[in-house]
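Re: [help] complex structure
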Amino acid sequence: SAVISQKPSRDICQRGTSLTIQCQVDSQVTMMFWYRQQPGQSLTLIATANQGSEATYESGFVIDKFPISRPNLTFSTLTVSNMSPEDSSIYLCSVVLRGETQYFGPGTRLLVL
Amino acid sequence: DAKTTQPNSMESNEEEPVHLPCNHSTISGTDYIHWYRQLPSQGPEYVIHGLTSNVNNRMASLAIAEDRKSSTLILHRATLRDAAVYYCILRDNSGGSNYKLTFGKGTLLTVNP
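Output below.
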């Protein structure tokens, strides 16, 4: 399995500010994803983080709001821009290591005041 | 993505078997059946997956109906640590969206001591 870490693990932010979340994997992976889990809800895929090119966003998510970087095969960042209280969620990265299994990070708990 | 239907919640007693059902009547021939679970305050964790045949691993068993329109995740001896939300997900193995996962609401499993 893959060991995935996320930083920060949690944060409290003021509206209008931005937060960058880091995802680090202990081995090179082909696919990396970013998900959002709003309070009491299931996970929703935000985007696929592509190494060396722009991320692929799902419907309802845009690059200006959630810019993503993936400079190499073990690291990615997700920025939540111009935050509002509605952005309060858990943000999770996941990777595909071998075959079909996705491994998830522990999540970043974000509260926007 | 094809949809799945799961009960909102189930209860079990410790050390007894648990059968978690999932209906997926619109499943296509290229859809794999995946199960993930999310323990409290953690990211989702892979449990098992299959295509047509029943599958066993150290965590659980997956029983797939002959017509593939339903499946059952079997935990052979529930422990308190198995209390989680269990997600049944269909993953399309065709085209370029191979590894995307679409999470539904899942089943909240409560294990009583």
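Chain B has a mean pLDDT of 92.
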